[in-house]
From TrEMBL:
Molecular function GO labels: DNA binding; DNA-directed RNA polymerase activity; zinc ion binding
Toprim domain span: 256-336
Family matches, as PROSITE patterns: TOPRIM
Cofactor: Zn(2+)
Transmembrane segments: none
One GO term describing the cellular component: primosome complex
Function per UniProt: RNA polymerase that catalyzes the synthesis of short RNA molecules used as primers for DNA polymerase during DNA replication.
GO biological process terms on file: DNA replication, synthesis of primer
Protein name: DNA primase
Record organism: Meiothermus granaticius NBRC 107808
Cross-referenced Pfam families: DNAG_N, Toprim_2, Zn_ribbon_DnaG
EC number, as in UniProt: 2.7.7.101
Details of cofactor binding: Binds 1 zinc ion per monomer.
Zinc finger (CHC2-type): 47-71
């Protein structure tokens, strides 16, 4: 089984490279952008992802990449098609495979269980839709939902019987076991029965608009839980999907923002009120994977519109603390009177009510401070201390330039009426505390504690090396990656170390690039790739020798920086000797790239 999966992965990687070789990137991009020649193998045009008057969007056929130096959007043929059409990688792959005549490995032979499960779920949806009438439909109408909203989101009803869906699926040639695997049936002591009974059903769709699960709301107060979800399957992982995402994707792209709510009714209600960019989480808060979905839909602003209770406040803060959330402008939406968005459908001015709430939404800094200071007397020293403790995790950033942290510091200074020196001393003590712990055996590994200028220099040098590796032929890529790893010894926690790990475990350059896009670093990597000069393959080793020497120099400089800091607190002859040896190593590397 494992060998079969590895073979399929290898075949998929080969198919991707074959598609790329048959579909010139300038031909694909040229269908959407008026391109003009800009040098050998290069074209330029107006960016399709943002408004501009001067062309900053470039296509490089040699590298197989396109990139906008203005809005930082770009990638290979698959990434471009995903972004321009608002689709997922799988759909982009299938479209280009069909156009270039490449057969994908999973298309061979008998249809697999994935498609069978999708068919079962479609049949279940047909059954639920056919039964939406009477009290179930009246309930939705009392909630203020229009017939158009019910149709758009495919709401249905699971009758109270124990075997209605079971019999319906049987009549369609679906076995009870297949219904069980799809999550719409249950089994107990060998007896199969319907999972959802006397409940309003909400189909959950993946980004390709395929039904992959259901959430069902009880109509009777005696039925618990209030909301019942399909079990997680290979198709359905709650943290990977957002409710109403397919319906909201175009609205997100057009507005540049996403409104994130807790409840499914809330999302539908906002769409009905005209806020077509609304989506709902399927858990307690926004996950990193869900945030990546919104990033791929071109959202630059997140409006977190969770409930006003304690759970809602906790969900908002958890979402703000996501690493990827730092790539958005984030706001917290607070509705008057603690109302949920779903309740606004019953108000005559519901649309205006929510628009006012959006306009009054608190920026991340304001929200964090208000939540930390809620119920406290900021004139008291101990209460100021509690605010600082609550905000400390966000204030102690490892990033050299974090605009949210700088604004949050300013808010703390004004809100707590603190002298700047007091706050900096407090944070300095916090950084010292966070650094205490088990010592690493190799001083070079502690790169995260270096000066910001050296950290940035290291990152730029690592990107230079990575850009050279991307010029290597696909079949030689992993081999050259190992060569670089053996000659640079990238410290743990660095970008290059992670790149090497991804190169060893992933199949092909394209997947490695997607790995870093998912981390939110794809734009910077593509920026360097597009700017790096083109060279003959025969000159690769010479270029790498220079780039690696410059990179090792920075690694030694980081080590030297740490050794000098240690010398101030723990002076010794051994440390002086090690400093001298490190300085000699730096000079040796400089001689390599200066000769």
């Amino acid at each position: 089984m494992v060998r079969t999966e590895l073979a399929v992965d290898l075949q998929s990687a080969q198919a991707i490279e074959l598609i790329r070789s048959r579909m010139p990137i300038h031909e694909l991009v040229g269908r959407y952008v008026a391109l003009k020649p800009a040098g050998k193998g290069r074209w330029k045009g107006l960016c399709p992802f943002h408004q501009e008057k001067t062309p900053s969007f470039q296509v490089d056929e040699t590298k197989g990449l396109c990139y906008c130096f203005g809005c930082k959007n770009g990638g290979d043929i698959f990434a471009f098609l995903q972004k321009i059409e608002g689709i997922e990688f799988r759909e982009a792959l299938e479209r280009l495979a069909q156009e270039t005549g490449v057969e994908l490995p999973q298309h061979k032979g008998k249809t697999g269980p994935r498609k069978e499960t999708l068919q079962v779920l479609e049949l279940a949806q047909q059954y639920f839709r056919e039964h939406l009438s009477g009290e179930a439909l009246a309930y939705l109408q009392r909630r203020g939902l229009s017939a158009a909203s019910v149709e758009q989101f495919g709401l249905g009803y699971a009758p109270p019987g124990w075997d209605g869906l079971l019999k319906f699926l049987h009549a369609q040639g679906i076995s009870p076991q297949e219904g069980l695997e799809a999550g719409v049936l249950m089994e107990r002591e060998g007896r199969f029965f319907d999972r959802f009974r006397n409940r309003i059903t909400f189909p959950i769709q993946d980004p390709l608009s395929r039904i992959v699960a259901f959430t069902a709301r009880a109509l009777s107060a005696e039925d618990t839980p209030k909301y019942l979800n399909s079990p997680e399957t290979a198709l359905f992982k709650k943290s990977l999907l957002l409710y109403a995402y397919p319906q909201a994707r175009q609205g997100i792209r057009e507005s540049g923002r996403a409104i994130v709510v807790e409840g499914l009714f809330d999302a539908i209600a906002l769409h009905q009120l005209g806020f077509r960019e609304a989506v709902a989480v399927l858990g307690s808060s926004l996950s990193s994977e869900q945030a990546h979905l919104l990033k791929r839909a071109e959202a630059s602003q997140l409006y977190l519109s969770f409930d006003a209770d304690e759970a809602g406040r906790k969900a908002t803060l958890q979402s703000l603390n996501l690493e990827i959330a730092r790539g958005f402008l984030v706001y917290a939406v607070l509705l008057e009177g603690g109302k949920d968005p779903g309740e606004l459908l019953l108000l005559p001015d519901g649309q205006t009510h929510y628009q006012r709430a959006l306009e009054a939404a608190l920026p991340e800094v304001e929200y964090r401070f208000e939540m930390a200071a809620a119920g406290l007397d900021l004139r008291r020293a101990e209460h100021k201390q509690r605010v600082l403790e609550a905000l400390k995790p966000r204030l102690l950033t490892h990033e050299p330039f974090d605009p949210v942290v700088e604004r949050l510091k300013a808010k703390v200074l004004s809100g707590l009426e603190l002298p700047a020196r007091v706050l900096e001393d407090y944070l300095a003590r916090g950084r010292q505390e966070s650094r205490r712990g088990p010592l690493r055996p190799d001083p070079r590994l502690a790169v995260g504690l270096a000066r910001p200028d050296l950290t940035e220099k290291r990152l730029l040098r690592e990107l230079d090396v990575i850009a050279l590796l991307y010029g290597v032929a696909e079949e030689e890529f992993v081999g050259w990656c190992r060569y670089v790893e053996d000659h640079t010894w990238p410290p743990e926690g660095t970008l290059l170390a992670e790149f090497m790990s991804a190169a060893r475990s992933e199949q092909g350059k394209n997947r490695v690039l997607k790995h870093f896009e998912a981390r939110g670093e794809g734009a910077r990597l593509i920026d360097v790739l597009m700017k790096s000069p083109t060279f003959e393959p025969a000159n690769l080793e010479a270029h790498l020798t220079t780039a690696m020497a410059r990179l090792r120099e920075v690694y030694y400089e980081l080590r030297l920086d740490k050794l000098k800091a240690k010398l101030k607190t723990e002076p010794s002859v051994d440390l002086l000797r090690e400093i001298s040896e490190t300085q000699k190593a730096i000079e040796a590397e400089r001689r390599i790239y200066k000769r």
